[in-house]
Amino acid sequence: MSELVIVTTYQRPELLTCTLKRINEAAPGIDLCVWNDRGQGVQGVRKHGFYGNTYSTMEALGLAHRERYDYVYLIEDDVFVYPDFFDWHRRAHADNPDIFASCAWTFNRHAPVVDGDDSFAPWYYSIGVCFRADKLELVARHANISYYSDMPGYIRDTFPDSKLNTGDMAAHYEQDGLIQRVLEQDKSQVCWPALPKCAHMGWSGYNKPNGPKILTADTFEGRVQQVEDFYANSEYRAKVFGDDIVRREEAGAGRGKFHSYREWQIVKPSGTLGRAFTTKEPLQPPWQLLGERTSFKMLHEVNAG
Prior knowledge:
The protein is an alpha/beta fold. It folds into two domains: about 5-200, Alpha-Beta Complex (Spore Coat Polysaccharide Biosynthesis Protein SpsA, Chain A), CATH 3.90.550.10; about 260-300, no CATH class. It has ten helices and 13 strands. It has helices at about 15-25, 55-65, 85-95, 135-140, 145-150, 150-160, 175-185, 220-230, 235-240, 245-250; strands at about 5-10, 30-35, 45, 70-75, 80, 100-105, 120, 130, 190, 200, 260-265, 275-280, 295-300. Strands 3-2-1-4-8-6-9-7 form an eight-stranded mixed β-sheet, sandwiched between helices. A three-stranded antiparallel β-sheet has the order 12-11-13, with no helix packed on it. Strand 1 (about 5-10), helix 1 and strand 2 (about 30-35) form a beta-alpha-beta unit. Helix 9 (about 235-240) crosses helix 10 (about 245-250).
């Protein structure tokens, strides 16, 4: 089985250094391609006038497809993989050979923070991804100048029946939006872990120009240490990215607390069952919301330390 890791990067050498360190620790010796957008010195694409990271990412995926790797991992320079990142992806594809891709970050940020079975959804995030060769081909065929030159027009013309072409999703036409439409067209699923197998550290970038000023040190080594300090400070990260995300990332890394929770189902006065819902600590259902004649049936309980 041949594997390639593509790391796309754009003018964030401090983040890239920390990302590569974790990849090399998790999978020593794995084939690795650092794909530098508008950069010099490593493989990638030179200066161009196309918007965002789409040209760079799609060209990298196209190269990986032409090289005929069995599995291709796409890891952006702000994704910190955990030690079990690659093993989880391999198992996800071995157990579910028909999936479109596996994404190692977090899909449902409202679910209880508890480990469990993988889940499946027709939804894609470009954060810690693995493609098998046959599904990557469906994406790589769109790595062309027609797409890069007019991304909104290409999306409309190529996916005219997509449900994503209306509302807020119509504005998502960069590489992740295109891949989402390929997934929709393929009518397949993406595999997601119950808890993340990586952390997303993208506090700034071309699409986040007003992110916090983390890197203030005079030396490169000092700025790399500031990245590591930021990653280690889960409270600060929660203020930047949101507590619901960071709690899951910390739990996935083995540092966070799993929350006790109970799953309930409403029993209506007639005896018929209503909707199911989850309560965290405190573990009692919200009796006052549903009236005295309504009762509850507890379906499942997890007590976490």
